[in-house]
Amino acid sequence: MRAIRAILTTNNEIWDRCKGSITVQPSATHKSATFTRYEYNFAKALKVTEDGSLQVKTEAERSDLEFDLSLLGGLPDEISLLSPPFLKDDDGNQTVFVDYEAYFEKTSILHDSVIGPFLVELKTHLENVQVCLGEIDSWLMFPQDTTSFLESVFKVALETPTEEHIEKCSFSSSHPKRTCRCHYAYSRHSTSQRCPLKPRQKFKCGGCKDNKVACLGTFHSLPGMFDTEFDLTNDLHRRRLQHFVAFMNEK
Description:
There is one protein chain. By secondary structure, the protein is α+β, with helices and mostly antiparallel strands. Among the domains are: 2-36 and 66-141, no CATH class; 172-210, no CATH class. The protein contains six helices and ten strands, in the order H-E-E-E-H-E-E-H-H-H-E-E-E-E-E-H. Strands 1, 2, 3, 9 and 10 form a five-stranded antiparallel sheet that branches. The protein has a three-stranded antiparallel sheet with strand order 7-6-8, with no helix packed on it. Strands 4-5 form a two-stranded antiparallel ribbon. Helix 1 runs parallel beside helix 4.
């Protein structure tokens, strides 16, 4: 009993961290869900200010991945002795996810002759659920490595955007009933105002904000032109960025 409660507590903690990153919900017929994360993969140094100073910026990029959540939405035959309750969303609507904590409490009505083998099978199933949740959690947490690296190098507090507080771009054509919505940052759209989601159509920006771009630092510029990009997923580029920032700070 104690071991099962410990697994349930851990599973609930992981699920609470992950559920807010679901952008495509599962259904009764399709038990997979799409999760979204934002990560900083590149830093760009460029002369952009009026006085010729050099700025280093980074931009959060969106990454989507689908995970099979069938373990969270159904019970194997070995533990399907009772009808399972289901979790509810923030609006009080029933989801497709089993409320395992409530289900565990219901097992108290089982007869002593079946409760022992049942709990063994339930514990095994909950451990499998924990593995599933752990894979999702690890994928969602991966960008924190790059974020921590940038914060260490530039001595800044860098907040990784989430789906909840990113204002998506909205491009409207001259036709009042045609609107293109996409998740790309405004900087990704070409100067000809063509949306990368629908490149054949020309759109006029409806005042969207590029709030996925963060300025990491501003330095006195080097002579001449300067425009370079650092791949933050590459160890060599990371070292180059560290040396570059150290050099610019000494100027």
